[in-house]
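In response to a reviewer's request, we include the raw inputs and outputs for one of the modeled complexes. The three entities were modeled together in a single run.
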Amino acid sequence: MRLEARFSWLPTPFRSLLLFVVWLLLNNTLSLGHIVLGTILAILIPLATYPFRTPQPLIVKPGLAVRHLLLVLYDIITANVQVAILILGPTKKLNPGFVKVPLDLTHSMPITILASTVSLTPGTVSAEVYPWLESLPEGEDPSERYLLIHVLNLQDEQALIQTVKQRYEAPLKEIFEC
Amino acid sequence: MAEYIISILLLIGGCFVLVGSIGLVKMPDFFMRLHGPTKATTLGMASLLTAAMVFFSTTGESLSLKEILISIFLLLTAPISGYMLIKSAIHHKLESIKRTSGKDNIEDDV
Amino acid sequence: MLETVILIVFAMIGISLLLNLWRLVVGPSVPDRILALDTMYINSIALIILYGMSMGTALYFEAALLIAMLGFVSTVAVCKYLLRGDIIE
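The model returned the following structure tokens for the whole complex.
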């Protein structure tokens, strides 16, 4: 896990890139003036907001991140067709359920990304990360974390946990190396 | 040609948005209702906005990619509002239907 | 052909808005109503984009983006209020 960026003037390289692209998209142009202005803003805004942020792990393997993003996009489309069929089909046949998935990730940022992916993909909505941080003694890290998810049509609990862990959590662990 | 692509994308998007709302009305308890709007509606919107992108790129004078911003924004925020909603539902101890399995997995909040 | 398709999709979104409104009125719980409102926000973005397409102008894009942001922020704020009894602690 790497928390500090390589250059001190560019604390969050990917956020800077995102800001730059969003600036160009908002103005819908590729003119030189906007490219220069966008570059300046993309460097200045992260520098100005850096002191307010808690340090988050940086992406170590960008190539793998892009591949994982494409996989997730593909999963979103197929999962949505499945969910549409489930919704339009008879409601009485659905077996909803709550499932606890043990997490290997420790940092809040990768856990957030995992919870969002789970929410967007097959018939699951992430509900909660256990244990409650408020219930622990001050400043202590929990030894084990769980993600509570609600499943629209639960068939095989173990298989679902395996899918979430292997398909979505393992690549995230590699991308952030934590 | 572009007209066909736009029409198909628009129809797919409209169907998904409609399915999301049908899920919102049809499902028996809150936790199941949440699945329609967080997933189907988001993908439907992405499809509609892609159609708008193709439309404005072919009819306008230049390429128009800014519609993709709304798609990305909706894709990023839909899980978060879903998470906040399910959290407040658990906090209010909403009833889930009887055949829901694994209800003991819900822990009391502080 | 495109005009007809846009009209059909207008009708689809209109029906979804009505369904959301039904859920908003019937409830039965507060999170249900918030969920219905959130979905209505998203559907109204679809309506605005479609209207812009049928008028042939890209002017409505900014309005759609603003509604997307306001909808998200208000959903989160109301949920936070339900959870904590306060929005900014």
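As requested, we also summarize the result in words. The mean pLDDT of chain A is 81. Residues 13-52 of chain A form one domain.
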